[in-house]
Every structure is written in structure tokens, then in C-alpha cells.
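Marked as duplicate of an earlier ticket. Keeping the data here for the record.
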Amino acid sequence: MSDDRVPGPIDHESPEPDRPAQGDGTVPVQDAAADPSVGQGEPDRSDEPGGTSARRRPGVVVAAVVGALVGVVALLYLINLGTTSGEIERNTSIGGVQVGGLTPEEARTQLADHLGGDTYGASVTLQTASGPVEFVPQDNGLTYDVAATVAAAPLRAADPVSWVRSFFTERTVDAQVGIDDAAFTGWLTSTAAATDVAAVEGDVRLDGTTVVQVDPVVGSAIDVPAAAAALEQAWRAGPQAFQAATLPLVQSPVRAGAQATQAAADQLRAAVSAPLVLDAGGTTVERTAADIAAVTTVTPDAADGFTVAVDTATLRAPVTPQVEATQTAPADASVAIVADAPVITPSTDGRTVDWNATQAAMSGAVLAADPAARAVPVVYVSAAPALSTAQVQALGINEVIGEFTTGGFASNSGENIRVVAEKVNGAIVQPGATFSLNDFTGQRTSAEGYVPAAVIQEGRISSAVGGGISQFSTTLYNAGYFAGMGDVTHTPHSFYISRYPPGREATVYDGEIDMAFSNDYPTGVLIQTIWTPDDITVRLWGTKHVEVESVTGDRFDTTPPERVVIPYGESCSASGGTNGFSIVDTRIIRDLNGAEIRRENFTTVYNGQQNIVCAPAPARATPSTTAAPTTAAEVPPAAAGG
């Protein structure tokens, strides 16, 4: 047994640090005779107040008190050691049960009573994805080894330091358990199979007009390895920990949540809840719920939800003709000559269906929850005319700027002139534009109302559909000539016809010979035609910019007609023929102040009209000749013109 005295610390409590410490803890009183400081010239002051003896007296008292306390503690330690030897260290618990101060046998008894009863062996309620389950440890591979657990508890230590420390230290000893892995894991596996919930993806679709809705289910399953580790750890930690144990569950998320699935289902129900009505300005058309369902789709979207879409273009297709019948076409402004004065008819706007805007409104109405929104007004946009009133007014069609008249045509030629005059009447030539007679009228066939009439073919008078049109072309050419229009193209007849001014006339033929002029002024030109059975007049209306004078020179280079004899039996129209000649026409263009702007010279070379002789019949009297017709039009060989 060690000495009850506490060594060492007493020296550090001494009020006189120069006094040497003693190993046994006592403080010796040094003899004055042994003190070298005494008798070295210092007087003895032991009897004086504050002398050496007086200073040493408190240290002796403290040392005595400390020594006494140490002795008491040592005595208690020895007594406790003798009475508790073999016991489990104080402040020790096993599985929540205090066993400190008990002998191992007592601890085994207490643990057997405590842990073998309801507290430690009781079942625990564990939560699964399908609800709570009861787990009975002993029935499923978890047991408790009392003897091994008590043997693991520390016994009372004999050394004084551990003895002192035991008053301030709490010790917890894990229970020594037995685990039947097959039974324990088997219970977890079978429980997982019975309670795990598989994930179900939400779905929404239409079956006809019925909404089919599958609500999503988040999957949840027992993590068997993690659950085994958690329950084993709780079992070892004791009843409290085991009763608080939980099963770790692994979640299997779904793409679309319940809220997104419900929202899509609500939209589908709204879509097929009632017919959709389109109101086209008072004309209504309807699409049924079945029609809507047939063009409605549901697709997953990027936001973990669903997109409900209605193909409104297909939905409205069957009723498109009815809706578009409510459209109105725009009307261009026009100008006509009434009572020898230009009168403008204002333009009017039309309206057309704006299908993009209308279909957007249809989509919103179909998916809206409000039944009152099922009627959709058709959206219209204004359709502007190609030629507005302001544009016509800006053309400056105010006065006659060029006019010409010809006559003397045969009735069938006159009919063709009437048809073409009606087509051209009212035509407007915009500033900077060119007017082409062939382009404007198109092909001149019997389908357009033209009839056979006189033409010039290979230098002779013949007949073809559209004959006589050259007279209208010549009249229009001269009106443009005196209006100052630019000469784009014109072709004189091959021989001179006396009803036209020499050097100022123009023949035409479909697709090959054209008459065209350009409007080189900043104002527009309106063509007015006036037809009678006797003559044709063409007037050009606009704003006068120039004065035009025509100077026709004398004829020169006269040539005799060619004599042609037509064999007997062939078609023949006898003609005495005319001389050919050349002539120069000069157009002088001046501004409105009389200043000359330019001169244009046109030289025309006319062939002589053939002298056609019809050969007499053999052995018959001399055949009479017929006068050549005075009205003719000319075309290229084997082609009709006028």
C-alpha cells in the first residue's frame, strides 16, 4: 500500500519559495545553529515582532492542514478500495442501465431482468413507404449477450488517479449483441418487397372527348444495406436508441408532379367542355368538342410538366370558306371622263381575315376555363387598295394633252376597233411607265370577241381575225405623238394607206409587231377612247407639259407599183396599185413658253401597193378588174394583223 501522504504539491503551496521541498511532504524546522546566516554579524531578532520565528509560523500551519486533508483522502481511498474491489467502475451504464458499483454477477442479474423484458426486447414500430410495420428483434435475428456485455464493462481501478477520475467520468458500454445475418437481412428484404412503392409517372390524354388522368406516384423503397447497418447500430446502443430507430428510404422521383399533371388535365377538360364558336362579323360557325379533341395533343415539356396544344389551323380548315366569304376586296381609286371632264371615284379599303391572330384567340378560348370565352370574334385586318384616292389625285389628270381621230374603216374592221377601244379605255400610264398595246390587250382572238377583217399579207389585201386593229394603233400613236409621249417602238405599214397621215402611223401584230410609248413626265396619263361606227378618237388626259408640232416633208424617191398576175382559178382581188415613196416627219417639242426642247425626225419608206392582175379564164372574154380596197391592215407573211 502506498503512503497516504500526497507528495510534491505541498512544496508549491509554501509561502517561502526559497525553502527546499522535502520528499515526504513535511516541512522541517531548521536549527539556528545550522543556519549559516546566523552568527554572521546579524543580531538575534527572534524576540522582535516580525522576526524570523514569527514569519515561519503560518507556513507550518498550512502544511499541517494540507497534510491532514491528504491523510483523510488517503484513508477514504483505502477504505473504498477495500470495500469495492471487484465491482464495476462507478458511473458506468450498459444499454441505458446503470451498472456502476455492481459486481459483474449483480450486473448480469439486473441486465437480464431489465434487457430481457419489455424495455430492451420490445418490438419497434418502423415506418415504410406503405405504412408502419412491427419489428420484433428476437424473432428476426437480433439477440443480446448479457455475460459478454458485462464482461466488457471496466472494473474498479486500484490506482488513486483512476479512483479520483471515476467520480467525474461517465462510461457507456455498448451491448454485446448476436446477429443472425440471414434472418435479419431476410426480414428486411421481405419487408422491402412487401412495402416498397414503385414510381408511377403522371399521364394525361384524351380518349375521344374523355380525359384520362394518371396521377404520379413518387417511388419509395427501403435501402436494405443502410437499414441493416442502422438497426444493428441502434440495437447495440440500447433500448432508447433502438426505439428511436428509423428505416432509411430511397426516393424515386417522377418527371411531372401532381400539380403539373392536374393542370394539364384541367386544360384538357376545358378544351372538350363545349363547342367553339367563330363569329365572323355576324356570320357564326361552330366546331364541336369532338372536332376539338381530334386536333388536341398533350406532350411532356422541358419544365417537368405537360404542354396541351390545339392545332387551330386544322380545326378551322372546314369552316375557312364560310369565314373568308365575309372578306371584302379593296377597290382602287379610278378616274373616268364624264361629260368631257375627269371624275375621280375614291378608293375603298377591304378587309381580310387575320388567321394568325384569330387562331391565337381560338387556342386561348379552347383552353380557357371560362365557358363564356368559347365565342371567338374573327380578327380582320384592313386591306389597302393598290391605287388610293390620293395617288389618283396626285396623277394630275386634269386636261386633254393629246388627241387624234381616224375613220373610213369597213364594218368588220370597225368591230375589232370597238373591242380593242373598250379594253384600252380608262387605262392609266403612271409617271415613268411604258404603255404597250400588245401587252395590255393580250392575244386578239375570236375568244376575246375579235372577228375576221382586212389585213395586208405579203403585200396584198387579205383577211384574218383581228384585222383593223392597226387603225386603232395608228390613232393611239398620233394621240401620244401630240401629247409628247416618248416613242418606244412603232412600225409603219409596208405601203401607204391614204386615211392615215404619211409618216405618222403604226401597224401591229400579236407577239411580233408592237406599238408602245413612254410617259416621261411626273404626272400620269389617262387614255380615253371614243368609238363610233364611222370613226375612232383617242384622247390622252393629264397635265400639259409641252407643245408639239408636226412638220411633214415632201415625198421623195417615188417608185412604181409591182405588177402581179394571179393565175386563173386562184383567189384574186385585182388592184391598180400605188406608187411607193419616202417621206420625213419631224416632231418639234417646245415647253409651254415656246422654247424648243428637241426635234425628232422619222423617215418612212413606203413600198408601192402591188398592181394585182387576175388572169382571165382560158377562151373566155377578157376578165374585168375590180378596184383595190381602200381599207387594209398589214401583218407579216401568213399572219393576221390590222
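See parent ticket for discussion. Confidence is low (pLDDT under 50) at residues 1-43, 48-52, 625-642.
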